[in-house]
User: Fold TMEM14 family from Arabidopsis thaliana x Arabidopsis arenosa.
Amino acid sequence: MHDFCFTIPYGMLLMVGGFIGYLKKGSFASLAGGAGIGLLVVLAGFISLKAFEKKKTSSLATLLQTVLS
Assistant:
């Protein structure tokens, strides 16, 4: 399996969790932590997917995924 198969759905799950935490408790930290990190994870997965379509690897996506984990 490729990395974007996990990073894109996981990032979306983080974003939804951040929004739910914000709506339930009004916690800005939950919004920033969940939605912000989730958005970056989805971005890394998207960059990796686009590189895969060109039959290449993306050092930027790998770096983002490593730092965010």
Q: What stands out?
A: The longest helix spans residues 28-53. The chain is about 85% helix and 0% strand.
